[in-house]
Each structure stands twice: as structure tokens, then as C-alpha cells.
Amino acid sequence: MPTFAVSPTQPFHFQRMARRLLQLEKSTYRELNGYVVRTVRLSKEPFLIGFRYDEGGQQLQVDVKGQVTDEQLSEAEQLVRHMFSTDVDLSQFYRHAAEDCHLAPLTNQFAGVRMVRDPDLFECLVKTVISQQLNLAFAGTLTKRLIALAGDTLEAEGKTWRVFPTPEQVAKLRYEQLQQLQFNRRKAEYIIDIARKIVDGALDLDSLLNMADEEVVATLTRVRGVGRWTAECLLLFGMGRPDLLPAADIGLRNAVRRVYKLDRQPTETEVRNIGSAWSPWSSYATFYLWESLG
């Protein structure tokens, strides 16, 4: 069983991050023998990968279940660094937030908590489209159903695990198959059509990595079913861009009202005005405000 360790930039609060994943990302993360585990693809091959944190050594311990090549092991390390934002220096954000009497208490409360990114952009985009105008629980249920319908299975640790489907696997689906799983017709069309655009070469998600934030938003919002909020979530949870402010998000607006002690929910414009002071760390200010909602 190949293992390796990643040394995150401190502070790094894995326990709270793991608790959040197990509570809110039940479609992809589970607990097994003291590890938080999920399936990923390494060189397009599915693997089960587990994470636990060594408090004494301040290292994230990673186990890859199965036989991997040196190339896949190197890919796994880069993937873990991406997923758990291990190289992000949060101390810069904390110094910035210390100047805001409303944000400063949150950085104390959530010190070391990082955004956990999705392992690839297709998974992030599809999960975000699924989440549009849905509560987290039902969005997770629909994600599980999609994975069960279209994804691969993997045998590991005496169990059968599901793997998030590839664009090729989703592109083969019919809209009616998702409707039978309680997806509405439009959302079924959005998801399958996005996959088909990727397979046909009309949409290259990897090319987005080299674009500025607003260029990514402009490119994605030309795709049916993708609005600004969805594009911003991809920038946040797919790429980990540091200065995103999804001001239209209801959860963020509720959090701003609560933390900034406003007498009503602020408008998108008002959130942008308040949030202008968060730059260049708007993403983490947003994330910590979301966390404050519990």
C-alpha cells in the first residue's frame, strides 16, 4: 500500500475540514479505519485514497489503495496538495482580516481551516450545476444517484466504491435517465450537454486554468446552464482562486447580515461594497463567512 506525507503550511486544521467533508460531501467522502477516504483518478485509472493527520509531525498522511506507478504516486501528491490547499499561506489572510473587526473573530474561530477543492474541474462543475437552487442534502442525494448511474465501480478494502463519472460516461446518458432520478428536465439537459461539449471539444475546461477570473466567467457563462454563481464556484472549489466574491449567494448574504450585524439581508451590490475591503483574500473571507453559519 503506497503511502506518503505532505507537510502543509501551518496552521492546518484537518479535523474540522474532515468533519465538514463527512457532513456535507457524503456523496464522495467517507470514513474508514481512522482515515477520510474517497475515490479519485490517477492517470485516468480509479483508486481509493485515504487521508489522516499526524498532529505531532504536522503532516497529512496519505494512503493510496492498490498498486500505483511512480508517475501515479507523483500525480497523487500533486492532487492532494491541490485538494487540501496545503500550500496556501493563510497567515497573509489572517493579517489582512485582523484589520476588520467583523472578520477577525472568524479567523480565530476557524484558524487553519482551508477550502477543500474538487479533484478535477468536471466534477466540480457538474456538482455545482446540480446544487443550483437546491439545499445541500438533496444536491448530495442527486450527486450520489448520478455517480451510481454513470460512474465506475472500484473494489478496495473489501468494499465496492463508486467513482465520479467522466465526461465520456455522462455524455452517453439520455436526459430521461436523469429525470428518473428526480433531476428536473432542464438540469438533466445542462449536465449531459456540458459533458457532450467537453467530449466534442467545444468546451476545454483545462484551458480555463490559464485564464483570469473574469475571462473564466465570460467563457463559462456562454454555456447553457452556467451562470455567474456557477462559474464563481468553479473558480473557488475547482481552482482555488483567492479573490472571488460570489455576492449573489444567499448563504453569503445571510452570513454578512449576521456577522456585520445588519438589520436586513444585504443586496448583492451591498455585499460587493462591504467585500471590497476583503481583496485580495475575498475567497477565504467568503468561505469563513459561510463557515460561520454552522
Automatic annotation (TrEMBL):
KW Hydrolase (keyword) present: yes
Gene3D superfamilies: DNA-3-methyladenine glycosylase AlkA, N-terminal domain, Helix-hairpin-Helix base-excision DNA repair enzymes (C-terminal), Hypothetical protein, domain 2
InterPro entries (UniProt xref): AlkA_N_sf, Alkylbase_DNA_Glycosylase/TA, DNA_glycosylase, HhH-GPD_domain, HhH_base_excis_C, OGG_N
A GO cellular component entry from the record: cytoplasm
Gene Ontology molecular function: alkylated DNA binding; DNA-3-methyladenine glycosylase activity; DNA-7-methylguanine glycosylase activity; oxidized purine nucleobase lesion DNA N-glycosylase activity
Biological process (GO), any one: DNA alkylation repair
Regions annotated as coiled coil: none
CDD domains membership: ENDO3c (cd00056)
EC number: 3.2.2.21
Pfam families: HhH-GPD, OGG_N
Catalytic activity: Hydrolysis of alkylated DNA, releasing 3-methyladenine, 3-methylguanine, 7-methylguanine and 7-methyladenine
Stretches assigned to the HhH-GPD domain: 130-294
Keywords: DNA damage, DNA repair, Hydrolase
Family indicated by similarity: Belongs to the alkylbase DNA glycosidase AlkA family.
Protein name (record): DNA-3-methyladenine glycosylase II
Organism phylogeny: Bacteria, Bacillati, Bacillota, Bacilli, Bacillales
